[in-house]
Structure formats: C-alpha cells, structure tokens
Amino acid sequence: MNARAAFIAIVLLSMGSAFAQSPAAAHNRGQLRLPEFAGLTEKASESVNVTFGPELLGLATRFLNSDDPEAAAAKKLVSSLTGIYVRNYTFDTDFAYPKADVDAVRRQLNAPGWTRMVETRSRKENTDVDVYMLIENGRAQGLAVIASEPREFTIVNIVGSIDLEQLHDLQKLGVPDLELETGKKPPAAKPAPAPAPKK
Amino acid sequence: MPDDLLLRARAGHATAFAEIVEAHQGSVFSIAYRMLNNRAQAEDLAQDVFLQLYRKLDAIESLDHLGFWLRRVASNLAIDWLRRLPYTTTQPLDEGAEVAAAATDDDPLMSRELARLLGELAPAARAVMVLRYQEDRDIAEIAAALDMPANTVKSHIKRSLTALRSRMIGAKLITAEELS
Amino acid sequence: MTEHFEDELRRALRPVKAPAGFAERVMRALPERRESIVTPIAAKSTARPPNYWQRLRAPAALAASLMLAVLLGQRMAVQQQQQDEAAGLAASQELLQALRVTSQKLDLAYQAVKNPPEAETEENRS
Question: The sheet that has A127-136: what strands, in order across it?
Fold first, then answer.
C-alpha cells in the first residue's frame, strides 16, 4: 500500500466482524442530506451533479465496459457501494457559491460514527478540504469529501462498504498516472499489438 | 475541395477518393501520431481509417461531415489501440516526425517536452487534448466525436492542463510565476 | 496566464506531415471494387393472384394483422431496449465522472497534507 493509500487508511480500525445492522439502515446513516443548490447550475461554468442510489448504481455499473481499465477499476470499487452523491460546481468568480450551505453539510459530519481523517486549511490559497469516514464495526461504511476552493466547491458522499485499496485505484480514473503524483515509475512500454498485414 | 468530390468518390472514381485522402492525410496521421507517439503505428492506424472511410462513403453526408467522421474514427481507433496496452505506459517520443507548419518555436525544448508529456495522459484525456489543441475543435464537437458528455470533455481539459503544468514546473521548464 | 500555456500547447501540437507516399499506399491497399450499399429495389410481381387467394382473404388479412402486431411489438421492444441502453450508457458515463471528481479531491487533500505551505507552518509555530 503506498503512501497515498496509507494516508487514506490512517485511522481505520482493524477489520472486524461483519456489520450487524440492516443494509438499509447502514445506507441511511452513511448518506448525507445534500442541499439542492437551486440555481447554481445556471451560475456555474461547469457542474457535476450526480445522485446514484442502489438501483441507479446497479444500472450504471452494468454498462461499464470491463475492457476499459478505467471502467473496470470503477466497477470493482462500486460493487460494494450503495450510493454515490456528488455536487461539484465551478465558477468564473471567487466564492460565488453559498458557503453556508457547504458548512451545513460539514455540520452533519459531527454525528456519531463519522471520523474526520483530514482537515486542511490554506489561507494562502483560500482552500479548505475535509475528508471524513464513517467507521462501523471496523469497516469504512461511508466517505465524505468537502472541498471549498475560491472558484469551485465539491461535496462527495460515498455510501457502502468501501475498500480502501480500490479507493486508491481511483487514481486510474482519468488522473494522468504521472510519476510526480504516484511516486512510482510507470512500467516500461510494451509494443502495441501488431497490426494486420497490409496488401 | 469541390462539392462533387464526395459524389464522385461514392460513384467509384479512384482519383476522387485519392484527392480526399491527400486532403485529409495530414490531419488523420497527425491525430494518430499524437495519440500513439509512434510513426509506424500512426501510419498503420491512419491507413485503417481511410480503408474504413472507403467502405462507408455512403454514410458521409457532406464534406464537413467527412472531416468530423475522420477525426472521430481516428481518435476512437487510437483510444482502442492504446487501451490494449497496460494502463500505465510511457511511450517515448518518436523522433523525426516532420512538423507541417513552419517552426515558430521560441522554445523548442518546451514544445518537445509538452508533446512527450501528452503521451502520459490517459487515452481519453489524450484524445480530448489532441482534438482541442491540435485540431482546434470546440467542446461540443469533441464530445460528439468521443461520445462523452460536454462536462466530461471540459473536465479532461482542465485536469490535463493542471497535470501538464505541474510536470512542466517539476521539470523546471517553466516557473509557477509564469503560469500564475 | 492559462492562455499562454495553452498557446504553448498549440505550438507543441502543431500537425505533423503524413509520411511521403502515404496516399499512394492507401490507394494500393483499397479493395478492387467498392461495393455500393445501395440495393436495387426488388421487382414487383405483376402476375394476377389466383382466385383461391381471394377466398382466403379474410383469414389471411387477420394473420397479416397479427404478424404486424407482433412485428410492431418487437420493434417497440427493440426501441425500448435501445432507450434503456442509452440511459444505461449515459448513467455509466456520469458514474465515471463522479468518481473522477472524487479522485481529484482526494488528491487535493493528499497534496495539501504532503506539502503544507511553509509560510503557514511558520505562523503556526509562532
């Protein structure tokens, strides 16, 4: 497990017995109440607004192409999840979003079970990032990431049994696998499959 | 390109099809080369694109559509080829590819390094960047060519620019102040 | 200065020329004859139907209606399946987009922890 995955796992308790509560109850506990952010989509220059409960996750996963490494990594991660909720908005001016709404989501994470794994505050860059995990019976059952940047804010809520190794594999999802980011060199290039002989 | 070129090519006139190939070979080969970073493979891929075009001429509605179709097929074919490789591969920049436009580089080293770093992007992100910055296509066309939502295209551009800038700063080819 | 960097990128990605003789090689690789996808319209039969067909007209029409209903039903099922597939594909793309955003923000936190700004660290110490 490299430094990045270890960072994500620093407060994870030892893997214990399976959780006793019903899946529905566990799903509800891990799921945050996210504001509608009405009108923000029109104001934002870019937005990603995703609400996937168990049924929609199942539908989306069925159409992921396993031959594509990115989709295959996603399929593995998502197989044990029950919900993915993302609100991401980018603006052309600083702090054009309602900070109070973002803070309201943060307050929900004071509830029992949620542990703040990372809290970063940068006055220089006016960026706050918090990462929380919901730990129950020794397993990560929920993840919340709240990032406030001057021209972008993001709320991510992932619900379900989260495998931290597979979470680390998220780096494959379109993030360029550059040496700077992972600290390890990519393997040597292999030759592409030989094309069909030409006439 | 004359309007009746497509009609003549469809009717089986070899010279008309040859004209189409000559008019578009630069763009198609260039996309293939930037995606695969290998001259020989790029030529094979570009040839495959034109062979497909020959079979599907009847589906081409206009000369504008022809350009779009070629970019779309070349990009998607290149993505498919790249995905057959292990995900994390670094392909060395193939030396010797002749640039079409006259060299106006103030900094050929930076240009070369940028082109090389592009080859380290994931296939889909790489295709987006090639269509945007080499082919000068807009977001909507790139989204249509690669069958992805416009927001995904924008996301790829934003993240790839950030990653490329970081690497350039890391390689000390530019300073953070130059990009602030 | 994003525009400056993008200009550099455009310079770096100037189109490259196709190899000499590329067009000729493509033309040599083409199949000898291009098959048109246009199919000739089948010739209509002008023969007069025999009388016994007329006697069977009603049940034949009913059978044809039933066949048409089955075919239409099949077509609607196919269309529904295509719509479902389109929705599923769109959902899968949205899912990947959501996971990309998650990855990016986790990385943001990771970078912030890995590389704390020195100035702020000094302030904390004082």
Answer: A46-52, A81-90, A152-160, A139-149, A127-136, A114-122
